[in-house]
């Protein structure tokens, strides 16, 4: 099995689940439902949910039990994009080749749609049918920590403050770890938690997620410099205009490419060690290929 | 015991708890911590937490067990004010006689501080030491429902959309029920839940909360018309300028005053019935006076 097949197997079902959960959360307020759906069903690659499922499958768990945490994670990822795109923050008019939420619905609705997705994420987890109370509580605590003022939001705040000063590469790595890494690490932690994976497996998978998250952000920074607008679906050289601290702006493009390659090699190393140790059920061996292929998202 | 004494007994301890919870959630990002603290510790009357505690006390429960849900509720109430005050929504420069968050810290920080308070509310509940997993899960589900896209946020969205049309009084009541009522009802539900109150007691208290919430909003609408700026701490006649649907704008000031009196009488009726039935431990009888005095907040 490769990532493509894995995606084909799960994404249709998961998208249906996501849309029906949205309907459960917002049956009555039409404008809010429309704005939430526009961003939630707006062509995201669903990398984070897929990562929950692949981790869960590799650990020998039941992928369906990962639907609720994966959906909560996708709700939160989506809210963060809506708020990040607002004029007061990144001021982006396009995302994934479509107008951003506030360009379509206005700022007030975009703010509320983001707030609504964030709140509904926790409702969904608390009300999920397939998890024990103890699993729910641990998932809610982990997700709130990853997305909250010590995780993603701290990274966003650091990012805004960083615009006024030049960061070192170590400082930038910390911003990235919180802003992008925390939710990607949650995906893997959620997969391990739902599968009741042992600590050794979980530890290695978390290390993999750390590299993947970091690589994801370096890749994102580089994309803005080396790819063209058709490929990225959003305005390029936007970071440079905003005077953002990025891997290429601190290290130069060539060194940033090398750093990305290092990160990818380290991530591969984690998976190779797990495979060499046979740290998962033998009939899930093919899922290691699926996980390897997540790194294709961040290659340039 | 009256409300004043009850407040004196609990508010110092609760404010310390609130501030230390904020410290737990945001140890590292200074600007975020400052903006969150500015609004959270900014002189709110803490009506919702007090209502959790008074309900809990009347039911014979341990008030300290109400600290976590009350703090989560206050975090969420505070976030909703920060986002509501934003230029894109209500565009308020003052709140409780002080500059609003975005006037002090800028819009980007205000948006993120609100997001952070909302997220941290759920972290706090999930990590609370004094509640069972089952209580935590039910509280998280209730709070997310009350604050989310079927509760408070739907009400905010209805409110924005209502600016462009004239609502009937029934439609306005529904907006209020969601926008203001839902969180006030949560306060009472949380008190009942933590105290393991019986369904009859909880039902009557919830009816009381419904009237209190509605009265609170009618009072708020009336304040904008009949009180002056020094008393309200914010700009008056703001609603009329924004062309908002309010009780006085639909019914006229006099009828709105009468409606408020009706609501207060109904709320008193709920408490009187509970008292007549002796539906709570005898040595908590004095707490019924405390609850009666919540209605003083909404008298004009």
TrEMBL record, chains A, B:
Kindly state which reaction or reactions the protein catalyses.
Answer: isopentenyl diphosphate + (2E)-geranyl diphosphate = (2E,6E)-farnesyl diphosphate + diphosphate
Cofactor(s) this protein cannot do without: Mg(2+)
A Pfam family annotated for this UniProt entry: polyprenyl_synt
Keywords per UniProt: Isoprene biosynthesis, Magnesium, Metal-binding, Transferase
Q: Which GO terms describe its molecular function?
A: (2E,6E)-farnesyl diphosphate synthase activity; metal ion binding
SUPFAM superfamilies found in the cross-reference section: Terpenoid synthases
- EC number, as in UniProt: 2.5.1.10
- According to the lineage, what is the superkingdom? Bacteria
Biological processes per GO annotation: terpenoid biosynthetic process
A single Gene Ontology CC term? cytoplasm
Classification via NCBIfam families: FPPsyn
Which family does the UniProt entry place this protein in?
Answer: Belongs to the FPP/GGPP synthase family.
Q: What is this protein called?
A: Farnesyl diphosphate synthase
Source organism per entry reads Trichococcus palustris
């Amino acid at each position: 099995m490769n990532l493509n097949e894995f995606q084909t197997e799960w994404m249709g079902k998961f998208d249906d689940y996501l849309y029906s959960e949205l309907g459960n959360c917002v049956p009555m307020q039409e404008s809010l439902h429309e704005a939430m759906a526009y961003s939630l069903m707006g062509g995201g690659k669903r990398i984070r949910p897929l990562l929950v499922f692949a981790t869960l499958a590799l650990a020998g768990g039941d992928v369906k039990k990962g639907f609720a945490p994966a959906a909560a994670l996708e709700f939160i990822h989506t809210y963060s994009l809506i708020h990040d795109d607002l004029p007061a923050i990144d001021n982006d008019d396009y995302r994934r080749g479509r107008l951003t939420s506030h360009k379509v619905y206005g700022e007030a609705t975009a703010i509320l749609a983001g707030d609504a997705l964030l709140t509904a994420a926790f409702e969904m987890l608390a009300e999920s049918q397939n998890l024990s109370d103890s699993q729910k509580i641990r998932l809610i605590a982990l997700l709130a920590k990853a997305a909250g003022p010590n995780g993603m939001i701290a990274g966003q705040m650091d990012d805004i403050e960083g615009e006024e000063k030049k960061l070192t590469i170590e400082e930038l790595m910390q911003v990235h770890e919180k802003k992008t890494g925390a939710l990607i690490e949650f995906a893997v932690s959620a997969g391990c938690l739902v599968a009741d994976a042992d600590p050794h497996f979980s530890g290695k998978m978390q290390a993999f997620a750390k590299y993947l998250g970091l690589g994801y952000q370096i890749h994102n920074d580089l994309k803005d410099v080396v790819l063209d607008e058709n490929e990225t679906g959003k305005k390029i050289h936007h970071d440079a205009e905003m005077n953002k601290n990025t891997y290429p702006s601190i290290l130069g493009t060539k060194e940033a490419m090398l750093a990305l390659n290092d990160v990818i090699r380290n991530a591969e190393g984690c998976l190779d060690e797990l495979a060499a140790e046979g740290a998962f059920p033998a009939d899930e061996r093919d899922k290691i290929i699926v996980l390897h292929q997540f790194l294709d998202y961040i290659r340039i």
